[in-house]
Amino acid sequence: MTSPLTEQELMSRRTWFREHWDRGIPFAVLLGLQIEQWEPERVTIRMPLREDLTAHEGIFHGGAVGTLIDTAGTGVVIAGHDFNHGSRIATVSMTVNYVGTAPGEDAVAVGRCVRRGRRLSFAQVEVTSASSNRLLAHAMLTLSVAGERQGIPTG
């Protein structure tokens, strides 16, 4: 068994993951995702509406919204995670209900961690339109954090 991480090591990992979510996930960068809030209990991410992310004029493609949901859900779990239990996160399952559209508006996802475990955690995400605050989708995610991710600070 390895010794517990020091507070400095934990802070270093939290900082690394926050920066990674902001600039280190190429697909999220491609979609233009912008972190607005990053806290252990709440992560908020905006996706600006662009024509290349639409299915119909002015309406996001469901796959783009699904990526936004996955990014917010994994983000909120890792933002409050105890890195003594690993650092490699993966989505185990994601159930999405698409419930509305808001033509011409950015989408904002708010992720909340509803339960943290040693290996499995659960997140809830709601996506609303940025201006009119219409509910666009809601989702539940099961996430696994196990093993060590390569490339993160070790000391």
UniProtKB/TrEMBL annotation:
Q: What's the superkingdom here?
A: Bacteria
Name the keywords, alphabetized. Hydrolase
The Thioesterase domain, residue ranges: 58-131
Identify the Pfam families for this entry: 4HBT
Q: Does the keyword Hydrolase apply?
A: yes
* The UniProt record lists the keyword Methyltransferase: no
Q: Under the GO molecular function aspect, what terms does this record hold?
A: fatty acyl-CoA hydrolase activity
Task: Supply the NCBIfam families for this chain.
Answer: unchar_dom_1
PANTHER family listed in its UniProt record: ACYL-COENZYME A THIOESTERASE 13, THIOESTERASE SUPERFAMILY MEMBER-RELATED
The UniProt entry's sequence similarity note says: Belongs to the thioesterase PaaI family.
**Protein name in the entry:** Thioesterase domain-containing protein
Lineage of the organism? Bacteria, Bacillati, Actinomycetota, Actinomycetes, Micromonosporales
